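Consider this today:
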Amino acid sequence: MNQPTSKAELRQQLIAARRALSPADKAAADARIVAKLLPWLVAHRVTVLGAYLAIAGEPDMSALYDALPTHGITLAMPVVLVRQQALVFVRWQPGDAISKDASGTLAPTARGEYLQPDAVLAPCIGYTEENLRLGFGGGYFDRTLAQQPRPRAVGIAYAFSRVSFAAEAHDIPLDIIMTD
C-alpha cells in the first residue's frame, strides 16, 4: 500500500482493500469478529447495544444481531436526526424497515423511543494503535462519544486496517478494537 498523504487517501485505500476481500474471506473474517464480540458483550453485561448497518464493505455483524435476544441484549441502531449532531439510537430488530436518515445513511424507519446504549459498535475504516478511529469523516461517532453518559465504544475493523495517523482535536479514542 502506498503511503497516503491525507486521511481521504487513507480512506480510499482501506475501503478498496476491504472491497477486494473475496466473499468467503470476508464472511470468515466477520464470523471471527462476532465470535469474539458476543462473549465480550455478555461479560461486560451490556443490555442495550448501539450497532450499525454495514455499508461500503464494513464488517457485517448481522449474525451477532440475530443472537442478541437470547442473551437479553436489546439492539439499537443509530439515526442522524440533524446533520453535524450526535447520533441517537432507536430499537431495531433484523427485518424492521429501514430508510435514509438526515445524513443519507440507512437507518431504522421507526423513530419511537430513543435508547441509551451501554456500548456502541463503531465501524472503522481504519484504526490506530491508540484506538483512534478513521471513519467516513462526518464526526458523528466522535460527537456521540463526547456526550455523557458515554457508552463503551467498541471499534469493529479488519486487522489489516491498522494504520497510523495524527489525532485531531475532535478525535476520541475508542475503548477497544475488535478485529478478525
